[in-house]
Amino acid sequence: MGIIKLLGSTTGRWIRIGLGLTLLLVALSSFRCGGKQKVGFLTGPLGLVMLSAGSFDFCLLGPLVGLPLNGKEARARLKVR
User: Residue 78: what pLDDT?
Assistant: First the structure.
């Protein structure tokens, strides 16, 4: 439950945004440099999901443990900021 508390918190939201941006940069650089394009095809969509989850404040792991998808409601139920 510790990882869910972290991801549901405001800090976790910023972590998801940062991780999403990092994954998108990895994907874009793999396409531009002619490197391993499989890496880009894997990290690109994952980066978009992480970035949108952080930006729109939803936690995809919440429903798996019985919490709401909405970040604000999950924080209220977990009693974290």
Answer: 86
